[in-house]
Amino acid sequence: MFDFNTFKQKSPQQRFLFILGLVMFAMYLVLGVALIFWKDIPFDIKPTYRILFGVLLIVYAGIRFFRLINQKDN
What we know:
The chain crosses the membrane at residues 16-38, 50-69. It is a single chain. This protein is mainly α. It has helices at 4-9, 12-37, 47-69. The protein has one domain (22-74). It contains 3 helices and no strands. Helix 2 (12-37) packs antiparallel against helix 3 (47-69). The protein starts with a helix and ends in a 5-residue tail after the last helix. 8% of the residues are buried. The mean pLDDT is 86.
């Protein structure tokens, strides 16, 4: 799982990519939640498809998060 000692030993490039991965995870999560709960979305999409796309984005964010946390050092 996630170990703070391993995080401290990473190179600056690896730390930057880890933080960038966390930012991308947060962006996908926020976009998925916004699609589900934002009723007056500025483009025309049926509510069923909007909710399905929001759930898909949240699932994708979860997959990215678990791959980021469980990645092994090469």
